[in-house]
Amino acid sequence: MAGSNEALPGLCFLGLLLCLCSYSAAAASTPDLLYLNLLWPGGYCHSVNLGEDCCIPTTGEPAADFLVQSLETYDSSSGNPITNCNSHCRFLINPLVDLIEDMFAYWPNLSCPSNNGMDQWRYVWCTYGNCTSLSEVVYFNRTLLLREQANISATLNSYGIVPDASITYSLEKIVKALESTLGSSSFAVECKRRYTVWPLLYDDYLTGIRVCVSSDATTFVSCPTVLPTNCGNNVKFAPILYASSGGRQRDPTANPLRLPSAMDMLL
């Protein structure tokens, strides 16, 4: 009995240590920073095999604007992404019925083959959204509101930066325009490089904007570290063209949106 009693303090200390370690690990895995990734379909489609691998979704039609790719979860102190927090994650389309038209317009999947976007929404929710403290509806709704609040296209246009196949803009001018609405240290401009003669002649196409966002997905914030850009000094802002439309710019109002069928809702 004496030996058992002597072991108790050691066991208690070990248990306390394990609890503290578990608490520290849980605290470290709590996301306190979000990254909003916005896609410019003009640059994206031009940079992936000149649009041949860029497809119009099967349901609805993307808006002629910057589109949502994802809202990612990060630990600002380590800079590491926090993902897949629930191995039993479920994505339910039914609660998003009031958002579905905006989802089709502003959060489509342009990859080929053509699809209705729902696999992408499921992936983003279970990879990132489930790691936030937000419900599924709030996560998607606030992300769409952040895209609207960023107002990237209108901001660039107000500075004379408009989509054009031949004009090249300075990265400095693009950054200055975005600083007027996003702040000076809250975003990075992202490009894809397309070579005409490797490795000497190339064009950098604006493909997206990456913005730092508060953990509750309500406001833009200063990034804890400077986000690097992969753009050169000069950038092309390509018009939105899709191979499936014969090289013509698509009119986002040309085809009415089709709401999901009853079968679609059974996801």
Automatic annotation (TrEMBL):
Keywords: Signal. GO terms for cellular component: extracellular region. Pfam families: Ribonuclease_T2 (PF00445). InterPro entries: RNase_T2-like (IPR001568), RNase_T2-like_sf (IPR036430). GO terms for biological process: RNA catabolic process. Coiled coil: none annotated. It comes from the Eukaryota. The keyword Zinc-finger does not apply. Residues 1-27 form the signal peptide. PANTHER family: OS09G0538000 PROTEIN (PTHR11240:SF57), RIBONUCLEASE T2 (PTHR11240). Belongs to the RNase T2 family. This is Uncharacterized protein. It comes from Ensete ventricosum (Abyssinian banana).
